[in-house]
Structures are given as structure tokens and as C-alpha cells.
Amino acid sequence: MNVASTLEISRAAEEPLRRLRDAAATLRRPAKFMEVCGTHTMSAFRSGLHSLMPENVTLLSGPGCPVCVTSQGDIDQLIELARRPGITLCTYGDMLRVMGSEGSLEQARAEGADVRVVYSSLDAVELAAADRAREVVFAAVGFETTTPASAAAVEQARRLGLENFSILASHKLIIPAMRALLESGDVRVDGFVCPGHVSVIIGAAAFEPIVREYHKPCVIAGFEGPQIAAALARLTELVSQGRAALENLYSQAVTEKGNLAAQAIIDRVFMPADWHWRGLGALKGSGLTLRPEYARYDARVRFSLGTPQGKEIPGCRCGEVITGRVTPIECKLFGAACTPVRALGPCMVSSEGTCQAWFKYKRLNKTAKTQSVARD
Predict the structure, then answer these.
(1) Are 34 and 189 in contact (CB under 8 A)?
(2) Which CATH number does the domain housing residue 83 bear?
(3) Would residue 67 be called left, alpha or beta, if left means φ above 0 and alpha means ψ between -120 and 50 degrees?
């Protein structure tokens, strides 16, 4: 982070940072807040926000990166499918370099597999419609933000009568992950900066159970540094006052009930299922699987893949990083065997990964707060 960039956010965020400092001065103990959004992770580091915060307030990076939370078993199944003759595997770009137990999709493509980067799930449907003799599988990864597009692709494939299109669904739901973090007891979290993109879909009210059942304040924020600073200021004020409340500071995009049309298409095509997360393990009702009437478009059924199994990368602590247990610099691979050029873990591969953010913006700061949340 250069001096000019730090000064720029400092001027734009002067008022929320002042409020944050004032509220922090009234805290009885240090406060730890967590964002669960990959865009928030990168924006906070890029804008220099961490360096402008009071010493007794820490912002942790949680499981908000879609690529990072995808289990090794899901990744291995994608690579296995890609290597099968007659299959075209379509994926978003961030998944291409994620390492599985035996290589990556990028390596599989170099060996002759037909792996294609697409910008939309409907691009994969178009490929299937153009060549009905070839099986096309779409890697459906992400939170509620990208799920409607996957559902739309399935419905479009059915309308077109495609027999050669399927998806390998690894979609996740954010609320079960937040519950799991709070119930694990491994990391103390005093409140959440809630994700903007996901909130647009599920609505602000979706976070009410976190506030009501766990007595943790939740503040929905936009994606610029000053917007995140404002959310942190409000969270600190609420904790200082001993209040648990839900507040929406991104009302220009997020409504109380969310995008009802997007929710409807998700509900038509998918249903909740128990799913395995990196760093969190198997969580009840935390993922989505295709409804029985859409089973013909389920790649796991179509190709008899079974339950995903996978081996973790030796030494990689990505699962601990995305649950706030450690910081990237506490991983021995970070900056040595694992860099953005030669990434071993998904947290370094993804443009929204915490490790990549640390490497780009914080790795030279040896005195930076290491969070050490599991030991506090």
C-alpha cells in the first residue's frame, strides 16, 4: 500500500474512522469483527484500512471467498471429469489454477483435457447446444450471488431439450457458515461485516437469526474502503453500547427481503443439502443440490461420481486462514513455496483470497497484527 493510496482513503473515510477511534476508546476489551466476503477482503487490504484501524479493533477475514471454501473433494471431482474423454468442462477463471490431489484444471488442460473458461453459466449452455454430441459440464461454484445464474442455466438447458448438459454443483449458503463459526468456539467474533453481493440476493432480514440467537451485531456494507470503515465504526459503537443489532449501510442495493425473483429460481431448481466446506467440515443444510426433477442435469448423478473425497495439500493452512484461526504469515508455505505465481492453496490462487491479499498488500509488514484469534 503506497502513501498516496493510504492518504486517499484516509480523507474519504475521515468521519467513519473518527467514529471508529472514538468508539474504540470506550471498549472494555479488544473487539474482533469478521467480514465474510472476498470482495471486502481484497478491498480492505488494497485501501490500507487495516493500517488505519485502532489497535484494539481487528478485522478478520472469514469464509467469504467462493473458491477458497470449495472442498478438495469437489475440486478433485472437477479435475476427474475434465480428464474424461468426450467431456468439455466449463469453469470461471479462478478455479483453473486451484490444486487438487493430482494437479489442477490448468494442468489437465495442458495435458489435452477440454477445459474452457466462461464468463457466464449460459455460455456453457450455448456450447452444449452447438455440439450435442459432446458432454458439457459447468462447474457451479459460489454463494447465493452466483447460484441464480446456475439455476437459469439448468432451466435453459431443459427448455432447449439438451441431453448433453449438466452442472457439478458446489454452491454454498452463507448463514450456516456464520453459525458454524460462532458455534465452533475456536475464534472469538464480536460481530460481522455482512457481504454486500450476497445480501442483495438474500436480503438484510436473512441475518436476523445471527443477531437474535447469538447476540452478535451485523452490519451490511458496500465494497469501498470508506464503506467498510463505516461498518466497522457502527459495529464498534454497538459493541461498546452492549447492543446486538442488524443495520443495513448498503441500502442503495440491499433491501429487507432481497431479490425475490432470484430466490424463486434458486428454490425451483435447488434444495438445501449437507455439504463439506474447507476449514469448516461438513455443515448441515449449508449447500445446494439439484431437486429430483432436475437430476438429469446433475453431473454427480450423470457420471456416477458419488460422494466427493479429497486429500488436503500438505502444509497448506488455507482452511485455518478462512476461518480466522491463523493469518497467512503463520503458514510456512506462505511467500515461499506458495506465491501468486505458483500457488498451492486456493487462498493464494483466488483474486478474492486472503493469502493473495496479504501477499500483495501486507507481506512486507513484519510488525502487522497477526490476529492470533484462536489464542485470545
Answers:
(1) yes
(2) 3.40.50.11740
(3) alpha
Q: Are 370 and 327 in contact (CB under 8 A)?
A: yes
- Cα–Cα distance, 143 to 122 (Å, whole number): 18
- Cell 490448468 belongs to 106
Q: Is the pLDDT score of 367 beyond 50?
A: no
- Residue 372 has what pLDDT? 44
**Which pLDDT score, from 0 to 100, does residue 13 have?**
77
243 and 139 assigned to the same domain: no
DSSP state, 246?
A: E
C-alpha cell at 138: 459447468
Instruction: Please report, for residues 44, 46, 149, 159, 206, the alpha-carbon distance to residue 223 in angstroms, rounded to integers and kept in the order given.
Output: 9, 11, 22, 37, 19
Same domain, 79 and 129: yes
Q: How confident is the model at residue 370 (pLDDT cuts 50, 70, 90)?
A: very low
Give the strand pairing for 191-194 and 31-35: parallel
Rounded CA gap, 238 and 233, in Å? 9
CB 362 within 8 A of CB 370: no
Q: Are 232 and 116 members of one domain?
A: no
Mean predicted lDDT score pLDDT of the chain: 92
Q: Which residue type does 184 have? A: S
Q: Which residues of 27-57 are buried (b: 16+ CB within 10 A; e: fewer)?
A: eeeebbbbbbbbbbbbbbbebbbbbbbbeeb
- Cα dihedral 348, 144, 139, 76 sign: positive
Burial class (CB in 10 A: 0-12, 13-18, 19+), 367: exposed
313-335: burial string, b at 16+ Cβ within 10 Å, e else: beebbbbbbbbbbbbbbebebbb
In a domain, 81, yes or no: yes
d(CA 3, CA 14): 16
Tell me the C-alpha distance between 13 and 17, whole Å: 6
**Which residues, including other chains, have CB under 8 Å from residue 337's CB and lie 6 or more apart?**
315, 344
Report if residue 15 sits inside a domain: yes
Residue 309 has pLDDT above 90, yes or no: no
Lowest-confidence pick of 196-210, 324-338, 350-364 = 350-364
What's the average model confidence in pLDDT over 226-247?
A: 97
